[in-house]
Amino acid sequence: MNLEVPSIPFFASSNNKGSVAEIKSSRTPPNSKQNRHRKKNRRSRRGLLGFLFPKKSKAKSGASAKRLPRRRQGKGLSLLSRGEGTNGENAHQESTRRKKIGPTSASQLPPVVKNAGSASQSNQPRVNNLPDPKEPISLSLLPPPLAIATRLIVLTIGVSTLLGSLIAISYSLKTVEPVEKAIAIETVAPSDQQELEELFSMISLGNEIPALQDKFSTLTANYSQLEAGIYVVDLDNKNYVNLRGSNVFSAASTIKVPVLVAFFEDVDAGKIRLDEPLTVAKEVVGGGSGYMQYDKLGTKYSALHTATDMIRVSDNTATNMLIERMGGADVLNQRFADWGLNHTVIRNPLPDLTGTNTTSPEDLGNLLIKVNRGDLISLRSRDRLLEIMRKTRTRTLLPQGLEEDATIAHKTGDIRSSLGDVGIIDMPNGKRYVASVLVKRPANDPQAKILIQKISRTAYQHLKFYNDRPFISSSEEE
Question: How many helices (DSSP H) and strands (DSSP E) are in the chain?
Answer without folding.
Answer: 19, 9
